[in-house]
Amino acid sequence: MGRLVVTAQMSADASIGPSIGWYQPGGAHEQAGEDEVRLADAFLLGRRTYAALAPIWLATSGTFADEVNAKPKYVASRSGSLTEPLDWNAKPIAGALPEAVRALKSEHPGNLLTYGCGEFAYELVSHGLVDELHLWVHPVIWSEPSRPLHGLGHVRMRLKASTAFPNGVVLNVYEPLPTDT
Predict the structure, then answer these.
(1) CATH of residue 52
(2) What is the 3-state secondary structure (H, E, C) of 37-83?
(3) Is 181 inside any structural domain?
(4) Could you tell me one molecular function GO term of this UniProt entry (predicted)?
(5) pLDDT tens column, 54-82
(6) How far apart are CA 171 and CA 130, in angstroms?
(7) Range of the domain at 106
């Protein structure tokens, strides 16, 4: 049975907005992020994240890009407007999200990796589908209004691990707790 991992980069004040001038490239944290991708069996993406990432990765070359581009991608859309064929080795998710994700977790023994921490991530967490949240915190205050899970609701978590990288980036790995706790 696979696991669903939501991974997101953010500033120290939890800015996750589209202006990622705060992102600190290079260093050991970037290698750890690539390792996270290598360990994944597939990607599970919301429609907006898919639309933003597909053109970038399809235009990127190199060994790591080849690995990313070869992995299967499953794309969720509330509007149902996604139809096959999709680019970037992707397929739309059919049916209700909880059942579709549970089926994908059964099909893939490794991690399903979800990028971003917005509405789609909140929906996954609220259905109890997320096994871990990986929050990569960069040492900068950026003050953008976009925050993790877009303030849609409360999510209690248990810290499983924390790794501080030499450049000040910290990876916190959390397990979402059931909503009744």
Answers:
(1) 3.40.430.10
(2) HHHEEEEEEEHHHHHHHHHHHHCCCCHHHHHHHHCCEEEECCCCCCC
(3) no
(4) 5-amino-6-(5-phosphoribosylamino)uracil reductase activity
(5) 999 999 999 999 999 999 999 999 877 78
(6) 17
(7) 3-13+28-162
